[in-house]
Amino acid sequence: MKVNQAEIVISAVSKKQYPNDGFPEIALAGRSNVGKSSFINKMIQRKSLARTSSKPGKTQTLNFYKINESFFFVDVPGYGYAKVSKKEREAWGRMMEEYFQERETLRATVLLIDLRHPPTEDDIIMYDFLKHFDIPVLVVATKLDKVKKAKRDKHIKVVREALDLESEDHLVAFSAETGEGKDQAWRHLSEFIS
Ligand code: GDP
After folding, report:
1. Containing structural domain, residue 161
2. Is 177 within a domain?
3. Ligand 1: does its nearest atom lie under 6 Å from the Cβ of 63?
4. What are this entry's molecular-function GO terms (predicted)?
5. Is 107 a domain residue?
6. C-alpha to C-alpha distance for 17 and 2, rounded to whole angstroms
7. 1 falls within a domain
8. Minimum-distance ligand 1 atom for the alpha carbon of 50
9. For residue 31, what are the CA distances in angstroms to 76, 111, 129, 191?
10. C-alpha 67 – ligand 1 centre gap (Å)
11. Is 185 part of a structural domain of the chain?
12. What mean pLDDT is predicted for residues 166-170?
């Protein structure tokens, strides 16, 4: 995929603000610090369009990035902060449910998992939540460059097994540092938006 154009269209706090031009959407979800912003920036060849490492307690928004005037990346607020309040957690849950349950233009979700560690309980809940709504998932296992080559296959297997990945859902090992996995990720995502 050659990305010629990418811009943030809106940081939405409620569904009234979601774009309504009907373009297909790919959502991106993952634990805070997993490398989600780095993934988005690498995929669209921008240094810092997606903000990296947003702090907990800030307003949680769904960020819509319009790509090539033809589809959206929708950056979902990260989960798994130890310090968020119950109120914030509930607000996050409502926003997720509303979006994933109702959004007709949503085609698939990229679920980012840190390849260095086994998936967390939150990661597994997120995968099950997406499957509950029948949403196709592409698992992107991040920070590939941080895992020794000899150990990569083993780590990938741990991720697959912990999530109990369905056969139609693919996994791509990815590094925002080296760009490994980028073409493969685009190949899978292109199928959802074509
Ligand atoms: P986010 O909170 O999920 O958006 O995570 P960020 O994209 O801000 O990344 C969190 C930290 O991990 C930053 O310090 C990034 O530089 C680092 N990081 C993200 N992806 C990679 C990667 O593929 N390789 C390495 N070595 N570091 C990464």
Report:
1. 6-193
2. yes
3. no
4. GTP binding; metal ion binding
5. yes
6. 28
7. no
8. 4
9. 10, 9, 14, 25
10. 22
11. yes
12. 93
Q: Which H or E element spans position 169? A: none
pLDDT of residue 24: 98
> 149 vs 94, which has greater pLDDT?
149
CA distance 20 to 11: 14
Strand order in the sheet with 106-114: 6-12, 62-67, 71-75, 25-30, 106-114, 137-142, 170-173
Query: What pLDDT sits at residue 58?
Result: 58
What are the backbone dihedrals phi and psi of residue 73, each rounded to the nearest 5 degrees, phi first?
-95, 130
Residue 158 has pLDDT above 90, yes or no: yes
Task: Give the CATH number, domain containing residue 24.
Answer: 3.40.50.300
What's the pLDDT score for residue 59? 60
Phi, psi of 16 (to 5 degrees): -55, -25
Number of domains in the chain: 1
pTM: 0.94
C-beta 41 within 6 A of ligand 1? no
Query: Percent of the chain at pLDDT above 90?
Result: 76
For residues 146, 140, 92, 23, the Cα torsion angle rounded to the nearest 10 degrees is: 140
Q: Whose CA is nearest to atom 24 of ligand 1?
A: 143
